[in-house]
Amino acid sequence: MHKYTIEHSLLLLRKNTLRLSRSSRAFHIINKNQTQLVQRFIKTPQLMFLNSNISYEYINVNLGQRQFSNSEGQKKEEEQPIEVVIDELTKEESEPILKDSEKMEFKAETKKLLDIVAKSIYTDKEVFLRELLSNCSDALEKQRFKQVSGSSQGGNDLYINITTNSKDRELVLFDSGIGMSREEIMDNLGTIAKSGSQAFLKEMKDKDVSLNDSIIGQFGVGFYSTFIVSDSVEVYSKAEGHNGVRWVSDGSGEYEISNADNLGFERGTRIVLKLRQDCREFSTENELEKIIKKFSQFISYPIKLNGQMLNNLQAIWYRDKREITTDEYERFYESVAKTKIPYKYLLHYSTDVPLSIKALIYIPSTHNEKYGIQNETQDINLYSRKILIKQNCSELLPNYLRFIKGVVDCEDLPLNISRETYQDSSLMNKLRNAMTRRILKLLEEEARKDKPKYNKWYEEFNNFLKEGLTSDTENSEALFKLLRFNANFSKKELVSLDEYIEKMKPSQDKIFFIVNPQIESAMNSPYMEPFKGTDFPVLILSNNIDEICFQQSGNYKGKSFVNVETSYEEIQKDLGKKEESSHALSKIPEDEIAPFSLWLKNELQPQITKISLSKRLKDAPAVIVGQQSSSMRMMMQMMDPSAANEGLKDQTLEINASHPIIVNLNYLRKHDAKLASLATHTLIDNINLLNGTPADVLKLKDRSFEMLEKFLDHNLEGLDPKPQRKLKAKSQDLEIELPEDIDSVLKKSHEDLKEKKSDKIVREHVVGSENNKNQ
C-alpha cells in the first residue's frame, strides 16, 4: 500500500490497480512531455494534463467523482485522503535511467554457438516461452528460499506477469524473483551454457543448508531460445542490495550492458522481446494462453496474462494423496486421457530412490486396439518440477505399456542445451526402468487384492503383457506373475503361475500345458490321457502366443515349460508311472508290428517319418508328435501359408496298438491295400483336424466322401433289392445317371397309371351295383 503525490507522475496501467476491470479507464496525471511514454502502454488512454502549479497532495483515479480545489492545494472538507494501491508491474513500467554502458562479446564461440542454439536445437518455436517461464519460476523459487531462510527482507508477493502489444510485436515478462546483479547477468547471460541455477545450488550446499529448491532452469541455456522468435531482447533486472542493470542483444554475437536506475520495481526481472515479423502470433493473447496452459499451467506461482490468471490448476501429483478426493483424481484422469470412461487402477507414487520421482499413473479399464480402430498411444507426460518437458513421452515406458495414462515428474532429470534433448540417456533409462517396475508391481498388488476384478481387466489387456514377455526379458518374471490361465484343476476361474506351482507334486519339476481355446476340447484331447485319473496340474492356454512366451523364456522360477504334445518320456519322468511295455499292450501280432509300421511310414511320408507304439494312449487310436506343437504349426501357417507344410514334416506317429481302428487297419492292409491306404490318410486327416492343422482341405474332402461311399456300399451288400445308385459325386461337377431307353420307361409308367385308374373305376362300379341289389 503506497500513497503517491502528483510528483510521482503515477501511471496506472493494470486492471487490478484499484480493482479496476480491464474495460475500465486507465488514468494518468502527467506533464505533456511524458505523453509518448504513456502511449507505449495504453492503447486508448484517457489523459488529463494538469498545470505544473497544481499541487494536490492526494489523487483519486476516478476523476469523475472528485472535485479539485484551487491552486493553493486546498481540498473541500468532505474530501478524505485517498490511498492509491499499485502493484510492482505498475511501477516497473517507468522509464529507466541508463549509465555506464558498454558493449561486450559473448564468450564460448559466441556467434557460432548462438546460431546453433537459436536455429538448430529447438524443433518448435513455442518452447521459448516455456524456457522463459522456467527461468522465472527458478528466480521466484530462489527468492522464496531466501525469504524462508531469513536471508532476505522479503517484500512483495511472488508472481509472474506477462503483457502483450501485438501492434508493436512486443512481449514482456516480469517476475518478482531474486533478480540479478550486473556481474550475474554478465556471467549467466554472457556465456552460453552457463548455469546460474547450478551455481546457486552449489552455493547453498556449500553452506550446508537443507535445500529442497525447485530449480529446473539453466540460465544462459534455455534463455537463448528467445532469439528463435525475436529480433532483439532486453533484460532489466535488480537484485536485492544491488543496482539495477539492463542487458540487450540482437543475438548477433555481442550484447550491451548498462547500469539502470528508476526501473520501477525493487526486485525482479523484466524481459522485453521485440518479435520477428513472422513470429508476431506470440504477441497475441490466444496463442500465449494456449502455450502457457500446455507447458506451464502447473507452475507453483501465479501467472497472469494481461491481468488474467492462467494457471488455476494445481500439480495434483505434488499434493498429499490423503488430501485428494476421488472426484479430483477422476477429473484429472479425464483431462489427461481425454475420455469419460472410468479408469481401473490408480498409482499416486513418490520416491527419492533411485531417483526423485513424483508420478500419477492411471491404468484404464479398456483400450482401442481390441476394436482394430487404432493403436494406443502413450498419453503420459514427462515433467521436471511441474514444467512440461515432453508430451506423450514414448521414451518413458516400454511400448507394451502404451495404454498407461498420467504424468511423471522427475527432479533429477538433467537437460542438455534444450529441454527437448536428453543429456543423460542412462539416467533416462533408469527412470524408465523404475517406472516400469513400479507399474508391474501395482498390477501384482491389485491382482492379489481382488482376483475377480483383476481377471476382468486381464481379459482386456493380456495381449499387452504377453507382448512385453517377448520384448522385455529384464522384467519377464514380473510379467509372468501377471499372466492368468485356465487349468485342469480350475476350469471356471483363471489361475496364476504361482497358483499352479502350489499344486505341483513334490517330484514335479516341469510346468505342463496344452494349447486349446476350448477347455472341454483340451480336457478330452488325446494328449491329456496320461493325466486322466491323476491330480497332476496342467495349464490350458487359450492363445498360440502363450506358447511363444513360454518358449522364449524357457522357465519360471526354475520350472521349465513342457507342452504335453511333446515326447511322452518327458511327461513320464514327472508322473513317476511304471507303464507296461507297449508291445505287451499290443493286440497286433508282434511279428506284424515292424512290417505294419514300415507300411504306415511309406504311406504317410513326408509328413510322418517315424512310427512308434504309444505308451500314453488309452482311448485314442493315434497322435502326432513333432518338433513343433500343433499350436506352433498353426501359428506358422497363419504367418506364412506358403511354408505351412514345412511344419508338418518330420513328425512321429504314435499308434495305440490295442485300439480297434489300428488293429483292423493292420488286417485290412493285407487284404485291400487301396482301401487301407484311404483309411490311414482319413485317420491322419482327423488327427490334424483335431489339432487345428488340416494339411489340405480339398484332399480331406475327397477322401472323406470316398470313405463314406465305400462304407455305405459295404453296409448295403446283401440287402434285397439293392438300391440302384443314381448319383455319382465328382470333384468338378455333379452328374445324374439315367437309363438308356428313357422313352420306354416313361411310356410304361403312363400305361401303369391308366391301368390303376381303370381298376379303381371298375371297383367303384361293382360296389355300386351290389348296393343297389341289396336295397
From TrEMBL:
One of its GO terms (molecular function) is ATP binding. Residues 750-775 are annotated as: Disordered. The keyword Nucleotide-binding applies. PROSITE patterns: HSP90. The keyword Acetylation does not apply. This is Molecular chaperone hsp90. Keywords: ATP-binding, Chaperone, Nucleotide-binding. It comes from the Eukaryota. Residues 750-767 have a biased composition (Basic and acidic residues). Belongs to the heat shock protein 90 family. HAMAP family: HSP90.
